[in-house]
Description:
This protein is of the alpha+beta class and about 350 residues long. The chain has 12 helices and 11 strands. It starts with a helix and ends in a 16-residue tail after the last helix. Bound molecules: phenylalanine. Phenylalanine binds next to strand 10 and strand 11.
Amino acid sequence: MAIDTEDLLTRIHAAPDLPALEAERVSALGKQGLITALLKSLGKMTAEERQAEGPRIHQLREQVTDAIAGRKATLEAAELDRKLATETLDMTLPAAPGSQGGVHPVSQVMDELAEIFADLGFSVATGPEIEDDWHNFTALNIPEDHPARAMHDTFYFDQTDGEGRRMLLRTHTSPVQIRTMMSQKPPIRIIAPGRTYRSDSDATHTPMFHQVEGLVIDRGIHLGHLKWTLETFLKAYFERDDIVLRLRPSFFPFTEPSAEVDVGYTVQNGRRVLGGSDRWMELLGSGMVHPKVLEACGLDPDEWQGFAFGCGIDRLAMLKYGMDDLRAFFDGDLRWLRHYGFSALDVPTLSGGVGA
Ligand code: PHE
């Protein structure tokens, strides 16, 4: 039985697609295939014939097997290219209306804060979440043995940075005060929203939470500026003119004097509604920047004064949008996100209402 090797190999190389190639394989190497038949014919040969024909037939089989494998790889690569080409997504296309996904309430509130404070001349500053001891504590007038360090339930890293400083997850956004004062000349007006970490967990505490820091440094800044700024911010944020604040003497190592700020609320149908001065709830910490903090940043306290405040963003979101369990913020439950999330197209503006 003669076989036209050249012709067979040409057909394999020319197979237009995988099914055609498979047909060639079956006709050559399948049960009824030509090469299979040749191999079977070996059994009927004499020993001498087999010695001459055997290697020739095996070589032929190998040649054909290799040719098929080669063609198969080529066809498969072409098929993949074709698929990839037809499956491209045009990322520049506008999103279809009513598409899935939304803005998390925390992101929404951060956008609202940026909008409100931009109107008051503040810019947004950021700092690293992995901080060193010096920025998170020491420069903020919290020395090594200060009890406030224990109060912060700090997550420490085992490693130190290149200069032997102990690294930690920042326990508040206040280190951004330090970074801003070290890198910018006054006058300074910034807010610094971001993630913060403490080892704490219950319905109103999660190990990761969000704060917004505020910092103003200028000449002749006093407590009145602080109170006006907070009042203006909270009236805009809660979209109510009857927001009443109460400043209570308090203590933070990095402010002097320090004030805890309470906001007045009433209870309506079992829900807290902000406004008025019926009852009080604690909302944020604040004070005049401590002279030692200014000095640590190379500023002369006789020339520059300022105020700072720090406020929980998750808390702000809960109060405005009515969630009562903080832990659900970070569960990633789609039903929760659909219920409390915001449309990506609904950008908060002061004119359109920051509440979206
Ligand atoms: N950093 C303080 C805290 O996390 C809040 C604060 C910020 C207080 C700025 C005063 C001034 O509790």
